[in-house]
Design a protein that fits this description.
This protein is an alpha/beta fold. It has 34 helices and 34 strands. The strands form 7 sheets. It has an 8-stranded mixed beta sheet. It has an 8-stranded parallel beta barrel with strand order 27-28-29-30-31-32-33-34, surrounded by 6 helices. The protein has a 6-stranded antiparallel beta sheet with strand order 4-3-5-8-6-7, sandwiched between helices. The two termini are 31 Å apart.
Length: 898
């Protein structure tokens, strides 16, 4: 390994340039290449990921075209100054350009020996929504002539020039990309060229003129010829892209702070389009889809970088590079292994070969699927690159949710209509849409699959809203593939067997036409596109995933339970590693053809005797469900919530349904309608529900307690260990709990005596009313456990209706009033403050008080970390979120240890 040549971070950050007023001007620009690097890999916050890693590659002796990086601090100042450059930037830019000219022995704007540069954005974290790269900057009528003389290759020179005008026109001058593409298509047709590479020099020269005319027509200004004007415009475009809509959407989706800013990397050009011995490509040091230990990527001969990712030409796989250019392949493999070992992570790298000379343009941590992330992490532990703790911390808990996505049912016999490249594994079923707007709108009502000719950064919001993504063009490193993998969306790309007619809202595959809102199924593991809704199956925990979760289980302190209402739900939860049930909602057992009529009889009963008679019919149903759940969870705690929702939810609402139910139950229609009307509430979520039902109708609590205890006692007689926990919902006053517990204990005691067994059970409450948190010390005098129901607690604390928040939440998020949807991510200050208070007060009274959480937040990683910090015993979440919670709980413990 080569000795570092970069200046230390301490000294570089203090480096400054004297100003005319005697004050030091901060160092705005850091150089790399030519044996010198001002920065290091750990300076991503200042230099962005791209700039920091280019500096580190230089330090490591990797061949990097020289250049410099303008810091993220300049971007922040740019906005603070009203989109103007800070003092000293212009002078430092000129100084570093002179340095770059000296290193490359070329002149910026020199007509005889021109220096051309690329300009790229580089945020501290990967940002697909940022500005597209600008290549070949510095070309004008004079320098292109000098380029022709120097290279003796007019075709290459004019190809570079037309590419520059197209990129600069699109990115900086905001000329619609489509206008340039139409002109390019005309030239291809005129010269019978299938690809851009087949166009002769004269055709490309004509394209330069046509492109300039398009710019003049669309902007009212001539295309800039001054290289410095070009460079200033490109730098400003990078800064401006930080706040474009697609970048803002991506940051919002990925919880990236708006204050980071982006760096600008200016790098001397090397050319992969100088002939048959020049090429360009993108590769990963391991397969980002599976984690397999092999070089994975694509390349194109006689091309520039954007050709590989844009889907304009079909690239070749890295396996073919090994045959076609074995020396280049071997060098790439060695560099890849060197950087992977150094950074201790999979690397995503861009390279260019200019007339057999290899240059590395970029390295960054590679985006990968959840499957690959887990495989790579566990493999790296086996290889001694990282520790088990590092492996656990490396995996995004939310990302592993991808591993729990369904796959195609092996028994299904789908009709495969096309096959593309399998870019992101898993399977997805949905209605076809052809643009982002429709994807976002329809996703509120139905599952959708976004179908495009090719995606672009403008499609990010639509991709996030979709179950799957299908493109006709593009390779495994195209925009759709990379972003789809990162988002965990099933993705099939490069499906050239389909023809997409976006404006006509359909696509064809052979003789099949698929219209908007028709159903299709994607298999992101095989690349198959299937007609209609194909049955899917759920995955299992095996291999590396199982290994990782076993490591997590030995590390975490928090226990993980599941919210499960049926024996089948409980079985799924156990399969995913649940250590009990934290919430069994008994009202979910009341639905069904046999049960619902009996529930309605109970509600419509005219007196207690009639109500008890109906409840007696319900008892066997509930008892059988509890037996099934206890058997699955033998030896593990099962928290059962007594009836919670308002009774009107079980009654028919429409006149037609009311007429049908009246005949079914033999009840007078008028009486039924009067009962429905009498149960109507202006605000049912704050009305006659929860513990209030059990207090008003104690016979309901009596029946449910009897069903729970009888089920437990019968299993105990069969030597099946049972741990029932009976939970009273919606308690806000200690006396409510006292009354409910008295009924529960009396029925339980009587039932246990009848069965002549010894049964231990707990009685506790769900803390979901703010008042309960305030008086938790008093409630804990009788309550043996607390379970925080954060769905209702959030609703009541904010005064937000879960059903209506969608009307204003997008505005709150956009205006940064709220950092996230409080029903998805726990509000740790407000709702969390009540939780802390309730927990501390409860344990002040009862030291051994068992405390958990059973709202939707129980499966959300940052909320789980909060639960760990405040000292809860467990979290409970949906069965399919249990693995996420297991990993998140382990990470919380590791962070706490640090």
């Amino acid at each position: 390994m080569r000795k570092r040549t970069g200046t230390s971070v301490k000294s570089t950050r203090k480096a400054a340039t004297p100003a005319s007023n005697g004050r030091a001007v901060p160092k705005h620009i850091y150089v790399f290449g030519g044996g010198r690097a001002d920065g290091r890999a750990d300076m991503k916050k200042l230099l962005g990921g791209k700039g920091a890693n280019l500096a580190e590659m230089t330090n490591l002796g990797v061949p990097v075209p020289p250049g410099f990086t303008i810091t993220t601090e300049v971007c922040r100042q740019f906005y603070a100054l009203g989109e103007r450059w800070p003092k000293g930037l212009e002078a430092q830019l000129a100084q570093q350009l002179r340095w770059l000219e000296g290193v490359t022995k070329k002149g910026f704007g020199n007509p005889k020996n021109p220096l051309l540069v690329s300009v790229r954005s580089g945020a501290p974290v990967s940002m697909p929504g940022m500005m597209d790269s600008i290549l070949n900057l510095g070309l004008n009528p004079d320098t292109v002539h000098g380029f022709i003389v120097k290279t003796e290759n007019p075709r290459f020179a004019y190809d570079a020039y037309r590419r520059f005008i197209q990129m600069y026109g699109d990115v900086v001058l905001h000329v619609e990309h489509k206008a340039f593409e139409e002109a390019l298509t005309k030239q291809r047709l005129a010269h019978s060229a299938k690809t851009d590479a087949e166009l002769p020099a004269q055709a490309l020269k004509e394209l330069v003129g046509a492109y300039k005319a398009i710019v003049k027509q669309r902007t009212g200004r001539d295309f800039p010829d001054d290289p410095m004007e070009q460079l200033r415009g490109a730098i400003n475009a990078v800064f401006s892209s930080w706040n474009n809509e697609r970048a803002n959407v991506y940051r919002r989706l990925n919880n990236i702070p708006n204050t980071l800013g982006t760096a600008v990397t200016v790098q001397s050009m090397v050319f992969g389009n100088m002939g048959s011995q020049s090429l360009t490509g993108v590769f990963f040091t391991r397969d980002p889809g599976t984690g397999e230990n092999r070089l994975y990527g694509e390349y194109l001969v006689n091309a520039q970088g954007e050709d590989v990712v844009a889907g304009i030409r079909t690239p070749k796989p890295m396996a073919e590079l090994k045959r076609e250019f074995p020396k280049i392949y071997d060098r790439l493999y060695k560099i890849g292994q060197q950087l992977q070992k150094y950074f201790k992570d999979i690397q995503d790298m861009e390279f260019t070969v200019e007339e057999e000379v290899l240059y590395m343009l970029q390295t960054r941590t590679g985006k990968r699927t959840a499957r690959a992330a887990v495989t790579i992490a566990t493999d790296f532990v086996k290889e001694g690159l990282i520790t088990k703790d590092q492996a656990l911390l490396r995996i995004d808990p939310a990302q592993i949710d991808q591993l729990l996505h369904p796959g195609i049912d092996p028994k299904a016999k789908p009709r495969v209509i096309a096959k593309g490249l399998p870019a992101s594994p898993g399977a997805a079923v949905g209605k076809v849409v052809f643009n982002t707007r429709d994807a976002v709108e329809l996703a509120e009502k139905s599952k959708v699959i976004l179908v495009r000719e090719e995606t672009s950064p403008e499609d990010i919001e639509g991709m996030a809203a979709s179950q799957g993504i299908l493109t006709a063009r593009g390779g495994m490193t195209s925009h759709a593939a990379v972003v789809g993998r990162g988002m965990g969306r099933c993705c099939v790309v490069g499906c050239n067997e389909i023809t997409v007619r976006e404006e006509e809202r359909h696509f064809t595959a052979g003789d099949v036409t698929v219209k908007e809102h028709d159903y299709i199924t994607l298999n992101g593991t095989t690349g198959e596109v299937m007609l209609g809704e194909v049955p899917l199956v759920q995955p299992e925990l095996t291999g590396s995933f199982k290994q990782l979760l076993e490591w997590a289980d030995t590390t975490r302190r928090l226990r993980v339970r599941a919210n499960a209402d049926t024996p089948q739900d409980a079985k799924v939860a156990r399969g995913f590693g649940a250590e009990g049930i934290g919430l069994c909602r008994t009202e979910h057992m009341f639905f069904g053809e046999e049960r619902l009529p009996v529930v309605r009889q109970m509600i419509l009963a005219k007196d207690v005797a009639a109500r008890k008679a109906a409840l007696a019919k319900l008892l066997p149903f509930q008892k059988q469900d509890f037996i099934g759940i206890f058997e699955v969870m033998k030896g593990l705690p099962v928290t059962i919530r007594l009836l919670d929702p308002p009774l009107h939810e079980f009654l028919p609402n429409t006149p037609e349904d009311q007429e049908r139910v009246s005949k079914q139950l033999g009840i007078d229609l008028r009486t039924l309608r009067e009962t429905v009307n009498s149960l109507h509430e202006l605000n049912p979520m704050l009305g006659h529900r929860g513990c209030r039902l059990g207090i008003t109708y104690p016979e309901i609590n009596e029946m449910q307690t009897q069903a729970i205890v009888e089920a437990a006692c019968e299993l105990l007689r069969d030597n099946v260990k049972v741990i029932p926990e009976i939970m009273v919902p919606l308690v806000g006053h200690p006396q409510e709990f006292h009354v409910a517990k008295a009924v529960i204990d009396e029925v339980a005691k009587r039932t246990i005596a009848r069965y002549k067994v010894t049964l231990k059970y707990l009685v506790g409450t769900m803390i979901e009313v703010p008042r309960a948190a305030v008086v938790a010390d008093v409630i804990a005098q009788e309550a043996e456990f607390f379970s925080f129901g954060t769905n209702d607690l959030t609703q009541m604390t904010f005064g937000f209706s879960r059903d209506d928040i969608g009307k204003f939440l997008p505005h709150y998020l956009k205006a940064n009033i709220l950092p996230a949807d409080p029903f998805m991510k726990l509000d740790q200050d407000g709702v969390g403050g009540l939780i802390r208070m309730g927990l501390q007060k409860g344990r002040a009274t009862r030291k051994d008080l068992k405390v958990g959480i059973c709202g939707e937040h129980g499966g959300e990683p940052s909320s789980i970390e909060f639960c760990h910090k405040v000292g809860m015993n467990y979290v409970s979440c949906s069965p399919y979120r249990v693995p996420v919670a297991r990993l998140a709980a382990a990470q919380a413990a590791l962070k706490d240890k640090k």
